From TrEMBL:
SMART domains, per the entry: HATPase_c, HisKA
Location(s), subcellular: Cell membrane
CDD domains: HATPase, HisKA
EC code(s) of this entry: 2.7.13.3
All residue ranges annotated as the Histidine kinase domain in the record: 262-466
Segments traversing the membrane: 21-42, 168-191
Enzymatic reactions: ATP + protein L-histidine = ADP + protein N-phospho-L-histidine
Protein name per the record: histidine kinase
Organism: Minwuia thermotolerans
Any one GO molecular-function label of the UniProt entry: phosphorelay sensor kinase activity
Coiled coil location: 229-256
InterPro entries referenced in this protein's UniProt entry, alphabetically: 2C_sensor_his_kinase, HATPase_C_sf, HATPase_dom, His_kinase_dom, HisK_dim/P_dom, HisK_dim/P_sf, Sig_transdc_His_kin-like_C
Membrane topology: Multi-pass membrane protein
Length: 466
């Protein structure tokens, strides 16, 4: 493992989930505030102007109430100052009256009629007043309160309206900023608690597992909260458990492989000694011993070869086949001879392979395949039974069948057939025979299958490409 990679990595402050969330929250809250801000400023302008119109209306009414509709110049001045306008005009159904005015009213730059103005218009007007500072004089028109059909007009400087609007806008803005910061902080803390912290724990667990997958104790995972993260944590925990199990199994197999190598090594030495002795046996005076000695030598040769090959490959994996062309019948006969050495305790061995049939395969490996199948069949058939081996060409393949008239593959074995170590259903069996046979056949590009089994016997079929 790369040392640099295994160091715990943390995102920089700028990239961390929490600070990104913080910034985004501030932006979103501000955005929401802008949407509130613009219409409320327009609304504020309207109510400000309505307020002024109302005051002007009141001042106008006081003039109308005076005898001869006139007041002193001084009072007029004071009224105008109090309301904050340059002049007030009132339109009554029959006449239009300039009721209050400065001696030199400034020229009007823009007229706004509040009666029935559109909302968008109001918003635009408010923004213009806030942004532009061109010191205009405005004429504002609104309904009068004293009579129907009457209206009031005021002439006023835009500056006072602008100052009020800016003041109001600033208040809203600082309030929004305050609200957004408070809500962003709350959100930040919540998300940190709900998302970022469990994520960190998840990461710490993954890192620890990566460093040492076999460690019994890893940092605790944020499970048990029922949300998406705890679901992920749950799955992670399961995956780690499975991986750990697989790892234990793999270590187990590796240890087994080493053991096999050691056994092969010493077995080869032992077999070599036996080989010397069996060569001496071929000079024996006993005719039976003399007859069987070559077969013993042949078996020992094969055993030594097998040990050497598995040593060379260093593991229990089979070396690739080294195919040659040979007559199948003689190989089947060899297997039969070996399996029925003690004729009195062996089933009958029927070699039904045609004399001229040739196969192209690794002879030693095919011998082992037939040996494993033949031994299983002989065990199933028993002394009284019969084992048959037949072969025929079919569809570019050669099918070799090993059948017996035993009592069939037991239920327990059938479930785990071809699975190493667990496939055996007999005393002293390792459950490796069929696995080895299938591996060897598959290395030849062929298949090995249980073709039929039942109370009347069993048949395994090997299919080899021609
Ligand atoms: N021809 C057969 N008839 C009945 N049962 C069979 C036959 N061939 C295999 N079996 C069953 O399948 C099981 C698995 O066979 P396999 O050859 O893989 O292992 P094994 O014979 O138990 O042990 P070993 O590794 O020593 O061969 C056997 O235990 C046996 O119960
Ligand atoms: Mg077997």
């Amino acid at each position: 493992m790369n040392g640099d990679m295994s160091r715990e990595r943390r995102p920089s402050i700028r990239n961390s989930l929490s600070s990104r969330l913080l910034i985004l929250t501030v932006i979103f809250v501000m955005l929401a505030e802008v949407m509130i801000f613009v219409p409320s400023v327009a609304r504020y302008r309207v109510s400000y102007l309505e307020q002024m119109l109302a005051e002007a209306n009141l001042a106008a009414l006081s003039v109308l109430a005076a005898p001869g509709n006139t007041i002193s110049r001084d009072l007029e001045h004071r009224l105008l100052r109090a309301v904050g306008v340059n002049g007030v005009v009132m339109k009554l159904p029959q006449r239009r009256m300039l009721l209050l005015a400065e001696e030199m009213p400034p020229a009007v730059d823009a007229t706004y009629d509040l009666r029935g103005a559109e909302p968008m218009e109001l918003i635009g007007d408010a923004l213009r007043t806030m942004i532009m500072a061109d010191g205009r004089t405005l004429r504002i028109i609104g309904d009068a309160r004293n009579a129907e059909d009457a209206y009031v007009e005021i002439i006023m400087p835009e500056a006072s309206l602008r100052a009020a609007l800016l003041d109001y806008g600033w208040n809203i803005f600082s309030l929004s900023l305050f609200i957004s910061i408070v809500s962003a902080t709350l959100l930040f803390l919540t998300l940190r608690w709900m998302l970022v912290r469990p994520m960190r724990r998840l990461t710490a667990n993954i890192l620890a597992f990566r460093r040492n997958p076999e460690a019994a104790h890893l940092p605790e995972l944020p499970t048990g909260r029922g949300d998406e993260i705890s679901l992920a944590a749950h799955e992670l925990a399961e995956m780690e458990r499975d991986l750990r199990q697989a790892l234990v199994q793999k270590n187990h197999l590796a240890a087994l492989g080493a053991a096999v190598s050691k056994i092969s090594h010493d077995l080869r030495n032992i077999l070599a000694t036996s080989q010397v002795i069996s060569e001496l046996l071929s000079d024996s005076l006993d005719p039976t011993v003399r007859r069987l000695a070559p077969r013993l030598i042949q078996s020992l040769d094969r055993a030594i070869e097998l040990c050497q090959r598995s040593l060379k490959y260093g593991s229990a994996d089979e070396p690739p086949p080294r195919p040659t062309r040979f007559r199948l019948r003689s190989l089947v006969a060899e297997v039969g001879d070996t399996l029925t050495l003690d004729a009195s305790q062996s089933p009958a061995w029927k070699n039904l392979v045609a004399d001229e049939l040739e196969v192209h395969a690794d002879r030693d490996q095919l011998y082992r395949v037939l040996m494993n199948l033949g031994r299983n069949a002989a065990e199933a058939a028993g002394e009284e039974g019969e084992v048959r081996v037949s072969a025929n060409e079919h569809d570019g393949h050669i099918a070799i069948r090993v059948s017996d008239n035993g009592s069939g593959v037991p239920e327990k074995a059938r479930e785990n057939l071809f699975r190493p170590f667990v496939g055996s259903a007999r005393e002293g069996g390792t459950g490796l025979g069929l696995t080895i046979a299938r591996d060897l056949v598959q290395a030849h590009g062929g298949t090995l299958e249980l073709e039929r089994t039942g109370p009347s016997g069993t048949c395994f079929r090997i299919l080899l490409p021609l």
